[in-house]
């Protein structure tokens, strides 16, 4: 394939693979049916995480933060851990120094892209979306794996961690169509503030392709005929989402004026009575709930995945700068 007389750059490719195996055929049929039943795509608030470049591709380390600084703090913690795990010896002195310089920089400065010990790291931005139909948000598909929570770890294994952002990877037809639809998508006038819309539109030019990330699941609740997320968190399987939603702490406490002993007693009773729902539709405290499928994509450009945008909500400064501000305001004791 050529692009202006030259081979198409990797970051612009969408490779569509025709798959004849029965599982792929059923998966594609599920996707077609759901695209008709749930035709409206609604974007959620962006997620932020960390990625590292390995062999020319970017690999997700984590994708859990609601704002960029939380992801930067996580990256700083990662470098602290690497330094602590690197033996303190003369031959490792330069490596340990590189990790220390990295987390000290992140403690003070807003940095979204840095190289540490010859490896690149980046704060990345991802866009979740859900499909809506006449009856509400899209539930899990029959072909979505639905395993129970790992009882030893207390959580289902994340599919995001270690995922390689590769725009050249083969896509099924339905995923390729969604990618092509999202390539030119940006916020419409009036839907968001002008600066948010402007950044969204600019991202189409600077990061002109998208890569779909592993699907996640959450629980939505219907209140007065309108659906809203019961939790802002997403989980790797439908059952993990059911488990989390069925045991929300705010549903357990007797009332807002309850004493600590009353809260403890209520929590103990809830643990004894706890039984997570198994279906995709259920009621919690009389409220209709539905396990909801959450798709997610990241924009990519010539230099890899998109980072935070200037208009993204980022309420906190780096930690040491924040501490300094608090000390100047007399709200924190000076360590000296």
TrEMBL record:
<protein>
    <submittedName>
        <fullName>DUF5954 family protein</fullName>
    </submittedName>
</protein>
<dbReference type="Pfam" id="PF19379">
    <property type="entry name" value="DUF5954"/>
</dbReference>
<feature type="region of interest" description="Disordered">
    <location>
        <begin position="299"/>
        <end position="336"/>
    </location>
</feature>
<dbReference type="InterPro" id="IPR045998">
    <property type="entry name" value="DUF5954"/>
</dbReference>
